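Standup notes, structure subgroup. Blocker cleared on the FE2/S2 (inorganic) cluster input:
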Amino acid sequence: MTEVTMTVNGKSVTKSVKGNTLMTEFLREELRLTGTHVGCDTSQCGACVIHVNGEAIKACTMFAAEAQGSEVTTIEGMANADGSLGVIQQAFQDHHGLQCGFCTPGMVMSAAALLKDNPKPTEHEIRDYLEGNICRCTGYHNIVKAIMAASGQDVSGIAAE
Amino acid sequence: MYSFDVVRPATVADAIEALAQDEALPLGGGQTLIPTLKQRLSSPSVLVSLSGLAEIQGVCKTDDGKLAIGGGTKHVVVAREAAADYPALAALAGNIGDPAVRNRGTIGGSLANNDPSACYPSAVLASGATVVTNKRQIAADDYFQGMFTTALDEGEIITEVRFPIPEKAAYMKFEQPASRFALTGVFVAKYADGVRVAVTGASEGGVFRWTEAEAALSSKFSPDALAGLTVPADGMISDLHGTGAYRAHLVGVMTKRAVAAAH
Ligand code: FES
Ligand code: FES
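Run returned:
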C-alpha cells in the first residue's frame, strides 16, 4: 500500500492505495464519486475521462499512485458553486446532448478540455477531438451542437435534432 | 491485475536503481502497459513509473541542429513543440490514439514497446534517429529488432531520441478505425544524402525500411518514381482487418501519398 494525496474537485484527499488501484476505482470506490463511468475499462470509450492537472485523461488507464500531488477534476466538479449546472452541462441539457447519459460525464470532461485550449472550435474540430469518446445513443449530432452552443457559437447550421 | 507496487522516482538514477529489483518493469504513460496488465499478460512485482522524471521530458534543438525529444515526453507535447522544426513528426504525434491517450502516452514508452502497428517507430527509422538510453546511444537501424523486440536491455530506459531534421517529410497512416493504430503507416523523409522510407503496421517483422522505394525516390522525389514498385505480400500481417496482400498494396499507396504530401 502507498499513501497518495491529491486534490479532487478542490478538496485535498489522502488515502492508502494498492499499486494496482486505477483512478476509476479510486474515485468510484474510495471516494464514492460515481459520476466517472467505466464503459469499457480498455481505454476505448472515454466514459471515464477526468482532468489531471487540467489535461483530459482516461481514468481507467492511470494508476491512482501516479496522481500523487495532482489536481484532479471529475464530472462532480463541473457544476456551478450553487449546485446549478455548469455551462457545458446546461448546453447538453438544452440541446439534447444525451439520452441514456452513460457517456455524458466523459463527453462533458472532454468538451471542457477542448474548450480550454480552443474556445471557439469548428464542428470538425469538435468531432475530431471527441474521437476517443463513444456514445451508443445520440448519434453525436446533438453532442456536437451542445458543445458549439457552450462555446457561444451559432448552432442553427448543424444538422438534426 | 496481479498485485504489484508502484514507485515514482524523481531522478533517472533512482529509477535505474529501482529497476534493478527482481521483476521490476518501467511504466511510461501506461497506455499499452496498463491494458496488458489488466489481461494478466504481465506480472511485475513493482512498476517503476517514469512520469516523475522531469530530466527526460521536453523538446529542444541540439547544437548540431537535431531535434532532441526526452524519452518521457508525452505525445501532446511533441505535437505542439516539434511543430516548428519537424512538422511531419509533430503531425504524427498529434494523430496517435485520441486526445486523452496523447495526454499520457510517451515517445519512449512507444519505442520501448515497439508495437508492430505503432506510429513512432516509423518516424525514428525513417529519420535515422538515435535512441539515447541511460547507458548508450543506439542507431535506429540497430534499435528495432522485430515485433515487440528492441535492442534495449532489461532495466535500460530511453532518456532521449535525437532526430536529424529532414528537408521534407510526411507520415501517412491508414488507420484501423477501432484501435486507431496504423493498419499500415508510411513515413517518408528526404535528406540531402537520400530518402528514407519506413513502414509500420504491415509486416510481421515490425517496422521496416522499404529500400527499393528509397532508391527510386532518392533519384527522383516524386510519386511517379514509385510506379511499378511493390512489396511482396509474404511476411505481411494477415488478420481480420486486412490480408497480407491488402497491407502490401497499402504500403505502395501510402508511400505515394506521403511523397505527395511531404513538405
Ligand atoms: S472506461 Fe475508460 S475508456 Fe472506457
Ligand atoms: S447517451 Fe447513451 S451512450 Fe451516450
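Discussed briefly. Residues A 38-41, 43-48, 58, 60 surround FE2/S2 (inorganic) cluster (ligand 1) (CB under 6 Å).
Next: hand off to the docking folks.
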